[in-house]
Amino acid sequence: MKMPVIRHLVETQTVESLLAAEEALLEEQTPAFEVEGEDEGEQLTHVFAAIFILNHIEDHQSDFKTALREYTKKVRVSIS
């Protein structure tokens, strides 16, 4: 998971375009825009993170850093 890639997606894509990219990746197709990552799994992680962050920003009127912290907290809980 690379934070600069996630930030770029948050700044340049909409939730709708990210959902379309998620669907494309899940169907082993190429998304309509470039998603950086070493493999499809990392690309999907970046897309998931960007979707979560954009939704969190909208739902809680928060900024990118706060939403990113919430996402990383969620990831840490799911790992442990």
What labels describe this entry?
80 residues, 4 helices, mainly alpha, globular
Any chance you could write out the topology, listing elements then pairs?
Layout: H1 3-12, H2 15-26, H3 40-60, H4 64-79
Helix pairs in contact: 1-3, 2-3, 3-4
Overview of the molecule:
The chain starts with a helix and ends with a helix. With 80 residues, the protein is mostly helical. α1 (3-12) packs across α3 (40-60) and α3 (40-60) crosses α4. The chain has helices spanning 3-12, 15-26, 40-60, 64-79. It is globular, with a radius of gyration of 12 Å. The relative contact order is 0.17. The protein has one domain (3-79). It is built from 4 helices and no strands.
Estimated structural class: mainly alpha
Tell me the number of strands.
0
Could you say which overall geometry the principal axes of the C-alpha atoms support?
A: globular
The H/E string reads HHHH
Distance between the termini: 17 Å
Which parts are unreliable, with pLDDT below 50 for 5 consecutive residues or more? none
Separate helix tally? 4
Strand content: under 5%
What is the C-alpha radius of gyration, as a whole number of Å?
A: 12 Å
Reported for the largest beta sheet, the result is: none
Fraction of residues in H or I helices: over 70%
Mean pLDDT: 96
Protein name: DinB family protein
Pfam family, one: DUF6952
